[in-house]
Amino acid sequence: MRATLCAALAVLGALALAPIAHAAPCVRVGVYQDDPGRGMPKLRKQLGKRVTAISTYMTAGRPLSPSLVKAANRNRSMLVVTWQPDAGRDGSEQPKYRLKATAKGAYDRSLRALVRQLRGVRKGAVLRPMPEMNTPWYPWSGAANKNAPADYAKAWNRVRKAVRSAPGGKRVKLLWSPYARSIPDTGANAIRAY
What is the DSSP-derived secondary structure letter of residue 54? Predict the structure, then answer.
């Protein structure tokens, strides 16, 4: 989990620091806590307004805890949700959660429900679906669970379509988040294949 968090922060940091045409680079300071509703007030007291994002992980098909939206609004923070189509446990070999299920719309309904929740985040929300796909660690990995990078692209497009078609879905930003290097480091598993 720590390696995943560090990789996610590195990707978020790189994106935040990338210059945008005619715009000054910016840095967003975010934090992951198991219970941000309880921990954020103390953290915010220590860090002040520098905490501008709350990050959480959720298993696909399950609802987002309403307390996270409340915590983000109370702390005037953006909410970053890492969406994981899996059984809520570690390990890539989870046949029920192959990318083909996502690509066929298995989670469309729950994604639209998630968007209904995320549109209530006043400072905005970022949805980070199926991160680090270029590794063998997850059921959505392109090199595991009988998946291929092309399956990932189809699943990503289906998630995007479900999110964008929901009322308020255009306000939710999508974050494509590969791991810093492909594992295994092969041409078939290269980031460009995704």
Answer: E
